[in-house]
Design brief:
313 residues; alpha/beta; Rossmann fold; UDP-galactose 4-epimerase, domain 1; 2 domains; two-stranded parallel sheet; 10 helices; binds nicotinamide-adenine-dinucleotide; binds uridine-5'-diphosphate
Length: 313
């Protein structure tokens, strides 16, 4: 049985990926320091006999006796609210944390996949964004701790491939949503659903004309899983190409929740990207992967999840 290590396992995507790998008969070692993760995700995974957990900050070195066949490095605050609250932790986990994980991959001679992001494209000047676009990033703006952190993490990952012969893959993840996002996560889908269910105004930043392309979590993790299995080296966009404005998203969530909430327009955060849509032709051709869940269906599943979260009322 192959054994993989997932850093950031207590987080939203880490939890779902661990479940998928367990279903596919892997042994999973999950690592997390709970900076933005949830203990419940870990306790729910711990019922599985092939899962084990290490409470550990990946910016500190980690020595493992056992054979490791692959590393999925997800540890990093991902919501703008979180990385703006933890700027130094974010830079450190992208740099030192990524290097520590790559060192394990080097010493164990195992494959490594970096959870990167559409934020490496910054506020893009081309739409949709394909992997060969170099991006438009403000290197000193507040978001740079994340954007430049992930760009550094990508550079480091490529250097370990070129110079240390580590087998690497880079998943450029586009806005993913679904069950197990935290109520206080701060990203737009969870904010809007929680606000709509509480009949509170939906906080639209700026004029709401900015766009994102939202991918349902089960589609996203299948794409990451397929990339992990592939022989490909380098970055691959994994996301849903259906582009939606923030206002359209807000109105759809109000409709799907049957809510009486209104829209409340407030200040746009600095450097908030105006457009974002993945070109997923590489993932389609390389992995035979396609997102299958429509925005409406994914939102309905996510709304059902948040209705069941007892602390919501
Ligand atoms: P999340 O905040 O829910 O999970 C991140 C996890 O990493 C948390 O459990 C946190 O405690 C852990 N962590 C942070 N610093 C750590 C450290 N030093 N040591 C150990 N654990 C640490 O975020 P997510 O949405 O699950 O994102 C996971 C990864 O995917 C991140 O690397 C993120 O950049 C990337 N990503 C996610 C999205 C998305 O839409 N969800 C989009 C682009 C990229
Ligand atoms: N956003 C919003 N209201 C919120 C949270 C976010 O209008 O309560 C906007 C935000 O300004 C951005 C988009 O929604 O334009 C997506 O934001 P999110 O934080 O989910 O992800 P990211 O900015 O990293 O793509």
């Amino acid at each position: 049985m192959d054994r993989i290590l997932i850093s950031g396992v207590a987080g939203f995507l880490g939890y779902h990926l661990a479940r998928l790998f367990l279903q596919e008969n892997y042994q999973v070692i999950g690592v997390d320091n709970y900076l933005t993760g949830s203990r419940k995700n870990v306790t729910d995974l711990e019922v599985h006999e092939n899962f084990s957990f290490l409470y550990h900050d990946v910016t500190k070195q980690l020595y493992l006796e056992e054979k490791i066949d692959g590393i999925l490095h997800l540890a990093c605050p991902a919501s703008p609210v979180d990385y703006l609250k933890y700027p130094l932790e974010t830079l450190r986990v992208c740099s030192v944390g990524t290097q520590n994980m790559l060192e394990i991959a080097r010493t164990k001679s195992c494959r490594f996949i970096l959870a990167s992001t559409s934020e490496v494209y910054g506020d893009p000047k081309v739409n949709p964004q394909s992997e060969d676009y170099w991006g438009n990033v403000n290197p000193i703006g507040p978001r740079s701790v994340y954007d430049e952190g992930k760009r550094y993490a990508e550079a480091l990952t490529m250097a370990y491939y070129r110079n240390q012969a580590v087998e690497i893959k880079i998943a450029r993840i586009f806005n993913t949503y679904g069950p197990r996002m935290r109520i206080e996560d701060g990203r737009v889908v969870s904010n809007f659903i929680v606000q709509a269910l509480r009949e509170e105004p939906l906080t639209v930043y700026g004029d709401g004309a900015q766009t994102r392309s939202f991918c349902y979590v089960t589609d996203e993790i299948k794409g990451i899983y397929k990339l992990f299995q592939s022989q490909f080296t380098g970055p691959v966009n994994i996301g849903n190409a259906e582009e939606t404005s923030v206002t359209t998203l807000a109105k759809l969530i109000i409709k799907l929740t049957n809510s009486k909430s209104d829209l409340y327009f407030t200040e746009l955060p600095q450097d908030d990207p105006q457009i974002r849509q993945p070109d997923i032709s590489l993932a389609q051709n390389l992995l035979g992967w396609n997102p299958e869940t429509s925005l409406e269906k994914g939102l309905l599943e996510t709304i059902e999840y948040f209705k069941g979260v007892t602390s919501l009322s």
